[in-house]
Amino acid sequence: MRRRLPIIVVAAVLTLSAALAAVSFGQSGEYKIGVLEPLTGPLAGEGKRHMEGFEIVRDMINERGGVMGKKLVFAVADVPDPTSASTEANRLITREGVKIVTGTFSSRLCGAASEAAARHNVIYWETSCVDPRFNKRGLKNVYRTEIDATGFGWYNIEFIVKHLAPRFNLKPSQLKIAFVSEDSSYGQGVTESALARAKELGLQVVTPTPEYYNFQTINDMTPIIVKLKQLNPDVVHHIAYTNDAPLFWRQAREQNFQFKALVHAGATGYGGSDFGKAMGNDGNGVFALLEPGPGFKLDSLKPEGQKIEKEFRDAVQKRTGSYPFGAHQLAGGGLWLLKLVLDKSQSDDPEKFRSAVMSMDLPVGTMINGWGVKFSETGQNSNDRVQHYMLQWQNGQLVTVWPEEFTTNRAKWIPLGAWDARK
Amino acid sequence: MDPARRLGRAQIDVFAQLGVSTILLGGIYALIAVGLTLIFGIMRVVNFAHGEFLMLGMYLGFWAFTLLSMDPWFVLFVSIPLFFGIGVLTYVLVMKGVIHASHNVQIFTTVGLSTALQNTALVLWSGDFHTVRPWHALRPIRMLGTAFNLSQVVAFVIALTLTVLLFAFMRFTHTGRVMRATAQDRDAAILMGIDTDRVYRITFALGIAAVGAAGVLVSPLYAVYPTAGLQFVLLSYVVVVLGGLGDMVGALIGSLIVAAVEVAGSYWFGTAWKEIFYFLLFIGVLVFRPAGLFGQRGAENLGV
Q1: Do B4 and A227 touch (CB under 8 A)?
Q2: What is the predicted ipTM?
Q3: Which of A48, A78, A238, A243 to mutate to test the interface with B (most CBs of B within 10 A)?
Q4: What distance lies between CA B170 and its chain's CA centroid?
Q5: Of A2, A170, B77, B155, most Cβ neighbours within 10 A?
Q6: What are A12-30's pLDDT values in tens digits?
Q7: Rounded distance, CA A190 to CA A320, Å?
Q8: Which domains does chain A have, with CATH numbers?
Q9: Contact A99/A122 with Cβ under 8 angstroms?
């Protein structure tokens, strides 16, 4: 009898998993995709907003008949760190039987998650991480709808040289710029690409090695600020992640560190809603490269883009009571694009899906966020199609200020005045 | 040219500023570490949930300010008895059961408690970052070429007072003597008729009251969110080891040393180096002076 026990156990497990598989494949009216999201841990705040963006656009998709004739549903997994991103991706694929995995908000998570999906030859559809290494690993079924950090750095320097420098009455070669950044692949990616571009255009870089720090353990920014004060930059290029943004801003004010502008990129740090809540009017003047915010002109888009963008904004307004934040827009834009691809491929077969992705060619202004579509062979949507915008904190709100043809708002406080005079 | 090498008036201001930052940052670390060193020193329990009690204190500061417009300085008076109560409750419900168990069991228990508290906060109050902005948090004080803010100064003064009070309590009261006796030899203490269970209960409650107060005081300085405790708790272990287990004054000096390493390291070498420096210090102390810089030789083995 003792010898038979293992066999019985194995048989029971097999039967059970077969039954489970039958259940998950049996719902013919639904199409399930895997969603990886940091819903707990240090990224939980933005992760939840990102999830809201997915849910809002999922409902919009289902109102239009879903994907491949089926109702779109999610199998959601909480992934607070890279290890869980990998194990949960495995679980969604092997247990839930999903053929498409999406997520993850963060550059800390997307690498591990997509690696796991690639091992199973499943489609991985990233909507927001910006780690430049993501699409350079030769993984065939891994796609990203958002631009990467190199694109962020490129846009930021574009803004500084074309918009800020003339308003400071400085030539690019006279403009002094300092780089400060958190040290994850996201911060480093944006910073290194902006630094390279700044050197190319002849800006005076006063921090040849950027000031990197760990956003989870930094408790005092004063030493960095004291050092920067001596270097006297015109522009501070600071990529922050979470609470490091209000900490830097508060302590810079304490130290009376005067600079002409601070520029950030991404939906974290200065680009997240928490910065506005923390600082109120004291946050006035900070720039963050993002998806469009208030002031964004609908009529600057193509007709189909106007329609879908308006519907998306209204849905977010209805659910959250506010204009969409970066995390909503990245998730929303990305999932909408997945629907367009599936409409075309009508299949989750990796080969058919890939040829549908590669054949997509939509100009700027046709999608949510005013985006367009054109993927490269590496599975990366292109910089010039995924239009980005410079937003500025003005009286507790992030508003679109650049490029000026897309917005009704104008950038203020250039250069930044004394700390108490930015009302 | 490296700004650090330029000399003159400006450089003197820089040194003054770094000095002031060190003292104020050290004050915050001391505030957090004092409760930990008490529990660690007397109960010989590594409380991995220490950071989460700090986080709860920060939330208390946040909610009292948001809902009742109460200044964190007033909330402090409420927080001390409240967290003393929470400490007693936690001891009775959780710690009492594992106080005689092996270190492994204690570690699993406190790590479990830490995760449970973090996730309770997440469920109740979401993962958003909250900020408390009483009038003193944004009030810079400028003096002799240095700048700092009032909330930090008060946190430092209270840290100092708390340390002195706890030190005096341990040294001069009967209960303090009983607590020290228990720390030195649990079995002998029991033979002398000391109710060690009561000693542990008081110790744990005092430690939690101290860290709760710390949480309220740092709430205007740092963002309040469910994992806010993590960024401080690792540091407090370094501080406690530096200062010697159960040594209040050692904790204060240890905090200043850690803050000095952090501030100077960030300025001269870059912030990325700060953890390398103080963990080297940490390992150095463990190797050469395992009882802490100021602890008595052999104290590390007592009661373990």
Answers
A1: yes
A2: 0.83
A3: A243
A4: 18
A5: B155
A6: 555 555 554 444 444 459 9
A7: 30
A8: 150-296+388-421 (3.40.50.2300)
A9: yes
